Each structure stands twice: as structure tokens, then as C-alpha cells.
Amino acid sequence: MQFANxxxxxxxxxxxxxxxxxxxxxxxxxxxxxxxxxxxxxxQRFITLQQDHFNIIETGFGTGLNFLAISALWLxxxxxxxxxxYISIExxxxxxxxxxxxxxxxxxxSEISRDLSLSYDRLKVGINVFNIAGGRILxxxxxxxxxxxxxELSEKADAxxxxxxxPAKNADMWSYEVYEHIARLSKTNTTFATFTSAGMVRxxxxxxxxxxxxxxxxxxxxxxxxxxxxxxxx
Length: 234
Hints:
The chain is α/β, with parallel strands linked by helices and about 230 residues long. The chain has a single domain, classed as Vaccinia Virus protein VP39 (Rossmann fold, 3-Layer(aba) Sandwich). The chain is about 30% helix and about 30% strand. The chain has helices at about 30-40, 40-45, 65-75, 95-105, 110-115, 145-150, 175-185, 200-210, and strands at about 5-10, 10-15, 20, 55-60, 85-90, 125-130, 135-145, 155-160, 185-195, 210-215, 225-230. The strands form two sheets. Strands 6-7-5-4-8-9-11-10 form an eight-stranded mixed beta sheet, with helices on both faces. Strands 1-2-3 form a three-stranded antiparallel beta sheet, with no helix packed on it. The longest helix is centred in the N-terminal third of the chain and has 13 residues, at about 65-75. It is globular and about 40 Å long. The N and C termini lie far apart (about 40 Å).
């Protein structure tokens, strides 16, 4: 397994291979809250949840920040007899040392981080399952190329967290084949959110059946995208 090749710049992890940062220099947590939690309407959906589980699929686990923030929100708001099923795809995961250094930046999530790191040192290529918070959260961290993982998935997402490195720097994560699988793994009213507003991402998701909207971006980013799955257009 190949761990991420990163360097730390002013306490921000930077990918050497993809020439990109893992989260906003301004405030990574606020970026996650704005882009992925707010634009997927997770707060309202967790509070009003009627089913016994909620499925999130994420492209790009990175430092695990999205997982930490969404999990904390789940534990705070979702009914206690429900489970969050969180599937995340990551080809080059952080080493345990880098993961711990990154997650130490958010001490408010220390209990979730501890549950994750207890068996993270046994990470392997393929499926890695973590029981978090006494089973209220099930993380399936899939370590492999995205086009190996997506065809094997069958559980449909309630929400997508599309957080690979920028399309210009990591094109494989944003291909039309990826969008087709995202559509296959979505149901009517499945939502998505992503930090990017790249035209090829917008067109690809629209062609796959999503109603796509531009929203104001976080911080210095002018725009971002979110939307809802409607149907596959002819």
C-alpha cells in the first residue's frame, strides 16, 4: 500500500504528488461545515431522520476531517437508535503518524479520532471497517483506485461528499465514468456537495442525472457546486 507523500507547511498537510493542500488554509473545519454539511443539508436531515440509517459516500478521505465533523454532528443530532454508514474512498491514505498530527488540530473530535486510530495501523488495500462510538457509526474506508471501488458498491447514498484533489490536479477522481457510478449509487433526492465549480464537473454530474447549482464558495473560492439526483437523462 502506498501512503500519501506529504509535507507540512505551517501545520497544513500538502500533497507532493498532487501539488495541493488537504484543506483550506483559512479554516479547514469551517470549510467542511460550509461546503459539505450545510450544502448537503445534513443538520436538518439528521434531526428529522425517519429511517434507521443514513448512507454517506465520500471520494477522498484525506485527513478524515469531513468524517470527524459529520460524525460529531450525527452523534449530536441523529436519533440514538440509528446508524451512520460512512463509505470513504482513498487511494493514498495518510500514515498513522500524519493522520494523528492532522486530527490533533481538532481536539473537539478526540473521542472519534481515538476510535479511528485504534486499528488504523492495520490499514490494508481494500475494505477497512471501523466501528465508531459504540457502533452508532460504521466507517468503511476503501483503500484503492476509485474505479476499482465504485463498481463493487451497491448501497445507495443519501448524500455524496465529493472531496478529491482539484480536478485539474487529480483528473481520475472526476471522470465521466466516476459520475456514472455516482448516479448508479444514488436515488431520487440523493444530494451531493463539492468545493469545486469546474465546468467539466458540473456538466458531468448534469449528464449523469443531477440537478446542479452553483453556490458561493468558501473563503477565497468564488463558487462551489451542490445538487440533487433527479434521473438519468436520455
